[in-house]
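Standup notes
- DV: blocked on the single-chain target, sequence here:
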Amino acid sequence: MTDCPAPPLIVDQPEEDLDNNVFQEIVELFWSAKHKLQIIFASHNANLVINGDADLMAWCTYRTIGDQSGSKIGGEGAMDVPAIRKAVTDVMEGGEAAFNLRRQKYSF
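- DV (later): unblocked, structure below
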């Protein structure tokens, strides 16, 4: 990412309660905006992360299953790291097949 004159944009769950058409509009807005400013967003939707062409991903896990008070960073990295791809495809709608379609389309 190049030097950006604007401060980062922090967005919490931009996909919440949106239908698929609006979801795609959000993705396209991220594509154009990420060249102008840093975007940091939290999402429960791996499709947004992949379709939005995220440069860096991090996810949370729980130390004890069922106890959500003990969360920790489960991992972080870029899409070219095999462990990151596996983590994303494990939770992504459509799984590895959907991920591979995106990878071919966007050459990552």
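- Follow-up: The longest strand covers residues 67-77.
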